[in-house]
Amino acid sequence: MTLETKNQVVVQIENLVKIFSDEEGREHCVLPGISLSVSQGTLLTIVGPSGSGKTTLLNIIAGLEEKTSGTVKIGKGAERSQLAYVFQSARLLPWLTVEENLRFVKPENTTEKSFKEKIHHYLGLVGLNDVTRHFPHQLSGGMQQRAGIARALCIEPAVLLMDEPFSHLDEITAEQMRVELLRIWEDTGQTIIFITHDMQEAITLGDRLIMLNFHGEIAEDLAVELHRPRKFSDRSFIEFYARSAELFQGIRKKE
Description:
9 strands, 6-stranded mixed sheet, 8 helices, 3-stranded antiparallel sheet, alpha/beta
């Protein structure tokens, strides 16, 4: 990836506002006017307390929820199809095999042959080439989530959106998935926006860390300039984690 490409902004958000109305007509502002830009190849992690609008922000970027006002631009005139979303659960179709689940997202303008090559490439990337004919119920939770990531990568999106994708896994499997995600990110140069409630996970993965406060505002925007691979036992990691946790605790006290 060239420096010019790496500095190219692929997500541009300006004054994004989201207001929900309850059954009695009372309004609740979740996002009060966020402005944010994300450059090509960035692995951005976002943390925030419950109700801070993390998932709402991701859903608006994905086009799954309507914004109240503001702008969201993906790339230079890019369409929503250049986004892919990995949810907390893999959401594989149970009646389809792993390969068929990936084929299900084939863009109309892509040939069967070229897309099949992509399917096997990305299944290989996540280590699932030997289970292409398995059904979801025959896979472990971690393998299902790998298949979900491969399905998202198959459309080769401009931006990969991930909403706490490892939160339902046991910690050993989740740690393995973090290692796999970092390997994929380094291999592909994929731009990723990753939502998490876990500060350690946010620092382990991200090269940029955003903290939202309870009012849906960006309270902190930090560069994570730690060497990879990152280990919680490393002094530099511990020091950055301690500073970040202190900042986050201060954010939570203001709720």
